[in-house]
Design a protein that fits this description.
601 residues; alpha/beta; Immunoglobulin-like; eight-stranded parallel β-barrel; 13 helices; elongated
């Protein structure tokens, strides 16, 4: 095989002057060759040279962009045909690697993510978001066709469920077979770059879900990659002892091995650098930092996994300071979002189980008397390391609407998921999402009452977007208030929260939100978790004067089945109430949420 004086840096297939260079890590190999469409898959034409550190390298002058290829690895009497672990493009999960040209005209793309307190995340699954039933899954280009809907809704971050190449065409994406390749059924790597560029032009940031707690477990060419393994384990890329065990198979990467750590680190950096992603959401970090999730058991912890998270997050903060990293851990562990210099994992924020579980419980339980206002108060005030935006708050996510659970309307009333009870209480949950401190998140279709449970092969029913356009308008109005688009609800994007009224008898709760305080900043939210309205209800307010009603979730404009309860402005007068210096009387409908603020002076 021909050599060049200056070796190309990097891994996988590297387009160089005079051909394509190939580098692969196979420390137990006796010999390695690259075969492909450029040499008629001949195992003798292009043999790689050992670099004496477990890596093998060579240049194929005949190879070019678009050629398919594989590595042939000899280990003793074993001869193994393997796809490239670093392949940026593959024909499919069990096909061939493709020589990919990383060049792309971003046309000056310089998008910057808004401040964290101004983010509104919309989680979506590419395959089902905008697809027709049957046939193949939806593609990235199909999502672009719905940007107008998302723009009108007001969200500003699109969080994509995993799209690293996975087994088959239909999947949630949490079974990655090739973590550097973009799922071929979704359009491949160029389709993703076009998607991100279009999203940025439309004003959306893009966050990608990545899966580093396990690989596969199927269609996994990494398994016993160079022929070596111990205890029947996965070989060089995996733990080969009890630490390989995960809820999804015995396929946890070996976070203690330098080459594997580099492999995962390189992958995280690739999404941000080459695809202009604005952040990464790490799937179930609990199983990166521990084997079985036994919190508090030092024998179950994985310090190497914690250290890998710190390394990635540290480099993200240094190299991509405008990006965000999100942990899904769901153990309410503030060390996930502590700075790595203090020993934390260094994530910017984390999905908050302290919010989603009590909120879903409060709106799903049948009897009003079983709704806990104390639990709602705790959900509103929980924060990590004193920072409200170190948590992502939501009532629906892909996990919360599957795995034995349904979307909130179906949880409330499975027999009538678009009826009065389902509409009232699911939108009450949405009101909490947008008025609680934290980064709010929606799951696809939530805004138009998509029912049942999430499945990767069942497309969203976009007819519901028309049928329940009023509910969509409600979500839009909540987002506008959350982002202070009208200039008089700045407090909803601030750090401050004070739950000053908790009435567990009448099931009414009230809270204050603020950023810097004052008229146009201070916000009062009151929620009625009871099927009966409350008239002449006395509530504390931070200041005397007129408090304008900015939002009433019972407005008839949102749904024909709503009661249009005559809630209105409140005239607060001096007089201590609920620990506040002023008080006022209001009226609130059943299962309703009201938002008040004062006009800016």
């Amino acid at each position: 095989m021909s050599q060049v004086v200056e070796k190309a840096a990097g891994m996988g297939a590297l387009v160089v002057e005079g051909g394509v260079a190939f580098r692969v890590w196979a420390p137990n190999a006796d010999k390695v060759a690259v075969v492909g469409s450029f040499n008629n898959w001949d195992e003798t034409t292009h043999t790689l040279t050992s670099e004496m550190n477990g890596y093998w390298y060579g240049v194929a002058a005949e190879a070019k962009i678009g050629d398919e290829y594989r590595f042939i690895i000899w280990n003793g009497e074993q001869k193994l045909s393997r796809m490239d672990p670093y392949a940026r493009e593959v024909t499919n999960s069990v096909g061939n690697s493709v020589v990919y040209n990383n060049g792309f005209d971003w046309e000056g793309d310089d998008y910057k993510l808004p401040p964290f307190n101004e983010l509104v995340i919309y989680e979506l699954h590419v395959g089902s978001f905008n697809d027709d039933p049957g046939g193949t899954p939806g593609e990235l280009r199909d999502v672009i066709d719905r940007f107008d809907h998302l723009k009108k809704l007001g969200v500003n971050v699109l969080q994509l469920m995993p799209l690293a190449e996975f087994a088959g065409d239909f999947s949630w994406g949490y079974n990655p077979a090739h973590i550097f390749a973009v799922e071929s059924a979704y359009g491949g790597p160029n389709a993703l770059k076009k998607f991100v560029k279009a999203a940025h032009r439309a004003g959306f940031g893009v966050v990608l879900d990545v899966v580093y707690n396990h690989f596969g477990p199927s269609d996994l060419d990494l398994w016993q990659f160079d022929g070596w393994s111990e205890n029947g384990g996965g070989g060089i890329y995996f733990y080969n002892d009890w630490k390989g065990e995960t809820p999804w198979g015995h396929t946890r990467p070996d976070y203690g091995r330098g080459e594997v750590r580099q492999f995962i680190h390189d992958n995280a950096m690739m999404w941000l650098e080459d695809y202009h992603m604005d952040g990464l959401r790490f799937d179930m970090t609990l199983y990166i930092r521990s084997v079985r999730g036994n919190e508090g058991d030092p024998g179950d912890s994985l310090p190497d996994g914690w250290g890998l998270s710190q390394w990635i997050n540290r480099d993200v903060r240094q190299r991509f300071p405008n990006c965000i990293t999100i942990a899904e851990d769901l153990r309410n562990n503030e060390w996930l979002t502590k700075d790595d210099g203090a020993g934390g994992a260094g994530f910017h924020t984390q999905w908050d189980a302290n919010f989603v579980h009590p909120v879903r419980a409060a709106v799903s339980v049948i009897e009003d008397g079983d709704r806990s206002m104390q639990a709602i108060a705790h959900a509103l005030t929980c924060r990590y390391n004193g920072d409200a935006f170190q948590r992502v708050v939501y009532s629906e996510s892909h996990d919360e609407v599957a795995n034995g659970k349904s979307r909130v309307p179906s949880e409330i009333n499975p027999d009538d998921p678009t009826g009065w009870y389902a509409q009232r209480r699911s939108t009450l949950a949405a009101g909490l999402v947008f008025t609680a401190p934290g980064i709010p998140m929606l799951f696809q279709g939530q805004e138009f009452l998509q029912g049942e449970w999430f499945r990767d092969d069942v497309p969203l029913d976009w007819d519901l977007n028309e049928s329940y356009s009023g509910i969509v308008r409600m979500y839009r109005d909540l987002i506008r208030l959350r982002l202070n688009r009208t200039g008089n609800t700045r407090g909803l994007s601030g750090q401050g929260v004070y739950v000053h009224h908790v009435n567990d008898t009448d099931k009414v709760i009230g809270w204050q939100r603020w950023d810097q305080r004052g008229a146009g900043d201070d916000v009062i939210v009151v929620a009625n978790f009871n099927s009966q309205p409350r008239e002449n209800y006395l509530l504390g307010f931070p200041n005397a004067g007129t408090w304008r009603l900015r939002f009433n979730s019972d407005a008839r404009s949102y749904s024909d089945v709503f009661g249009n309860h005559p809630s209105g402005d409140v005239e607060a007068t001096s007089g201590s109430r609920d620990g506040m210096p002023s008080q006022g009387t209001l009226s609130i409908g059943p299962y309703s949420l009201l938002i008040y603020s004062q006009d800016r002076r």
